[in-house]
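[retry 2/3] RNA/RNP complex-1-interacting phosphatase: previous attempt timed out, resubmitting with same input.
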Amino acid sequence: MLFRGSSAPSEQAVETLRWLDYKSVGRKLPGTRFIAFKVPLKQSSEVFGLWELLESVQKQRLDLGLIIDLTFTTRYYSIQDVPESLLFVKIFTAGHEVPGDDTILSFKRAVRTFLRENANNEQLIGVHCTHGLNRTGYLICRYLIDVDGMDPKEAVDLFNSSRGHAVERQNYLHDLLRGPKRSNDGMDESEQEPIRGLASHRPSDIISEPREERWPPSRDSHQH
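[retry 2/3] RNA/RNP complex-1-interacting phosphatase: success.
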């Protein structure tokens, strides 16, 4: 692992290194249109970016259509980095705490809008937070429980087995397994139009630079 500068990494940077411990992309959740992954980084990081994400999904013989970004920052990548084949929705979601009803409704609306407009294809909805685990797992499971009527334990088990990692935060698990269902009122209303990515080609196709494995940006690292 290479670090810039001679000083030891900060505590926050060390926490961010946990990003490397998680699988980049999980498997499609069977019977759903969801797939979960950790945050892709800007292409300059050369670790796991948006083009690597596309390749990974395509290797599973699947087609990704929408990215829902749940990180509580815009630091990791911008719409200019998103391939133009993908739609993008940003839902700022704070880490550690159980998402509020407004955030849950925003997620449901984004999913319902995409499914309604893509009923004639099998394009997937990709969801990520920092590690693609806790916020991501909570909101996917919340949707499966509230909207699809799935048993809470079945939903959590399905997410964990498909992601390849288990949801860690006990307050999220407690709310999913024992908490009340959330209202679906208003979820069929459009809230924000997905934005189409602006990247027409992979940057490394134009400029080839020596690869250096770097740790990702530190902000938001503790909110996985």
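[retry 2/3] RNA/RNP complex-1-interacting phosphatase: The chain has one domain: 25-198.
[retry 2/3] clearing retry counter.
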